[in-house]
Amino acid sequence: MTPSFDFLADDQASIDTLLHDVCEQAIDLLAGMPSRPVAGGISPAAPDDTGNGARAALADFTARYSAGLAASAGPRYFGFVTGGVTPAALIGDWLASVIDQNATGSADSNAGALELETLARFRDMLGLPDAFNGAFVSGATMANFVGLATGRQWLGAQAGVDVAEAGVAALGPVRVLSAGAHSSTVKSLAMLGLGRQSLQRVAALPNREAIDVAALTEALAGAPGPCIVVANAGTVNTCDFDDLNAIAALKDRFDFWLHVDAAFAGIAAASKRYRPRLAGWEAADSITVDCHKWLNVPYDSAVALTRHLPLQAEVFRNQAAYLRGEIEPGNFLQLTPENSRRLRALPAWFALRAYGRAGMAAIVERNCDQARWLGERIAGESRLRLLAPVTLNGFCFAPVEGDAAALLARINASGEVFMTPTVLFGQNAIRGAISNWSTTPADMDRVWAAIEGALLG
After folding, report:
1. Percent of residues in the chain assigned helix, strand, coil, to nearest 5
2. What is the DSSP annotation of 394-417?
């Protein structure tokens, strides 16, 4: 008979050495990040036994999974819009796990005060007025969900209906207008019961992803009643911006809820060079800004901002005798979809406290310069076609001849860089975004060499 052994008690007794070992492994991982293949995907070996303690679990993870994980925190991962992790944000994230707060804003902790301070620092960095309050959520999808849910409640108020109480059926058909709403917005419409078909695509400007304001004006004039407008501040393919000033001006003529999806490009407001592109977003009713993108904090983190906190609370309030029921900034239990939420604000607090607006502006401007550098080389290569001007930190291109998917596969197979496929203006293409604080000119040279090598087949 195998003797019983309390592995949990043993792990607790040796927690200092376990954490030291993990720290050493993390240091090695971070040190090797610039040289390891950017994309992983190695299939793990067969699983080992379970129930034999944390040290055995760490060894099993290291042997079977570690090498196959993507180096998405590294300097040449250009897939999606993925930031890295600054040292300060990493400290904050580790402490968030150690402290292990259920950050609802309850009276037993000052976690709510920390989140409010983080939101104030965030607002200040972005140049937004104090009228905006909000909360940390898991990512842009949930931030868009929160903004649109609050917009849905506003639509109900215009019709004399409390949608949160009566249900979405009492609201009737809803119209959501946008030129290029992100897929997370479409997903949110499905989750909210508004339906994907509630989205009406408005024409974009020629060879742009930005909305044609004249077409939006016409759509608003033809709407049967109040509606929701989703404006983009940074599209995924070309980093294009809707004219937020012009859209905001339409609120003088039409009744609509303005939601600005600034998932990654909202952070560009930290830079004086790029803040003018977001002019007008202060008139929005709700705003999405991601943190695990350009703020370079660990997944998962985003901020949902609104000027209509009471409406947001009508949607998300949670009534129970043992819970605080006040509707106020800081009582996040009443403002977010989650009843339980980690102290997501702490990594962002560390990043904002450590580097401030100037530090974030430097990251933004450096990444944009790197994207422009790459765009110039793509434009100068006769075998490639740059499909849109590089105006921020993203780029989009295709081969003049041949299949974009095949070229992308060769580029990614190099292990030097990872980018993703897309379709732009009806053409299959390759896109990427540079959002990592640690990307260097040497990394950009390696990326360009990988693209040139892939062109040779």
Report:
1. 45, 15, 40
2. EEEEEESSS-HHHHHHHHHHTSS-
Global confidence as pTM: 0.96
In this prediction, residue 5 carries a pLDDT of 62
Closest to 130 (Cα-Cα) out of 273, 307, 375, 369: 307
Provide the CATH topology of domain 88-351.
Answer: Aspartate Aminotransferase; domain 2 (3.40.640)
Tell me which H or E stretch contains 431: strand 427-433
What 3-state DSSP class applies to 140? helix
Query: What is the per-residue pLDDT for 42?
Result: 81
Helix ranges restricted to H, 84-135 = 87-99, 111-126
pLDDT, tens digit (0-9, with 9 covering 90-100), for 355-393: 999 999 999 999 999 999 999 999 999 999 999 999 999
Distance separating alpha carbons of residues 73 and 84, to the nearest angstrom:
4
Tell me the sheet residues that pair with 421. 430
Q: Taking residues 178-185, report their average pLDDT.
A: 97
Lowest-confidence region among 40-44, 125-129, 359-363, 418-422: 40-44
DSSP-derived secondary structure letter, 307: S
**pLDDT digits over 132-171, tens only?**
999 999 999 999 999 999 999 999 999 999 999 999 999 9
Q: Give domain limits for the chain.
A: 14-71, 88-351
Beta pairing partners, 177: 200, 229
The amino acid that residue 121 corresponds to is R
Q: What is the DSSP-derived secondary structure letter of residue 456?
A: T
Q: How far, in whole angstroms, is CA 428 from its chain's centroid?
A: 24
Residue 146: its H or E element:
helix 140-158
